[in-house]
Amino acid sequence: MRNYIGVKDLGNLNNAVKEALKIKGNPFAYKHLGENKTLLMVFFNASLRTRLSTQKAAMNLGMNVMVLDINQGAWKLETERGVVMDGDKPEHMLEAIPVMAQYCDIIAVRAFAQFESKEEDYQEKVLRQFIKYSGKPVISMEGSCSHPLQALADMITIEEFKKVTRPKVVLTWAPHPKALPQAVANSFAEFMNEADVDFTITHPEGYALSPQFSGNAIIEYDQDKAFEGADFIYAKNWSAFEDPNYGSVLSKDMSWTVNSQKMSLSNNAFFMHCLPVRRNMIVSDEVIESPQSIVVQEAKNREFSAQLVLKRMLEAL
Ligand code: SN0
User: pTM of the full predicted structure?
Assistant: First the structure.
């Protein structure tokens, strides 16, 4: 594998999930692969799970790991060419990226949506610049419109917990105080469209995701109706995608919070969320603390989604 930006980079999704579960069964079996190889993780935004799970995955493979937090200790980076750099950004990405590439074999990057230009966000402008100017394999640790390491971990988790061959999976919007990217919801939808599941997305009107990601999902504006018969409830907030509201909060309707009464409409569904989660906005204390909540198991699988991607990249170096 050269780069990991979306589901297509995995080839056959079933095989990828099987391979990740095999790695989970024996995580240190490939320790020789990463000998004297270095992963550089570059963060433009905060992280807890991605930072720890990706580093752990690299260590399982015997790699060395370096972490750079742009905005905390590194020079602030200019991203636009042609700018007179007389402001607060001392370094340009056009030098910084090839320099970073000198010290590593694989680069993983987190760069959230800026919400300044939908076109730039949906072209994954920062990740594309890393691919173009580093000459190294690049992993998205959440770009501006997708989070494929999370979605692969979600896929692995559903495979482990499903009780029927073709479960009903529901992605539900839930309220949040701030404008969040569509990235997690986009990638989850992208992967579910490739998976053998019955997939519904429920959200208030005005929150349609990009059709490029929502694909063939059933769209249901009545959350209660969407929950009926669900085997998995995947909650997430996202800001509006459609123009002219791109990146805005249109609703904080607390009747969309996932609580016990709503879960009781489902088929005793498992509750999933990528975390971090705002309790009693997105999900009630009762639901996230219930035995049906599998958010921690889901986070554990971040290690194996990252390890699968790193393993395939190391094999192709
Ligand atoms: C990010 C998002 O894309 O929604 C990362 C999720 C893995 N979430 C946040 O930025 C949450 C911030 C907050 O204030 O709750």
Answer: 0.97
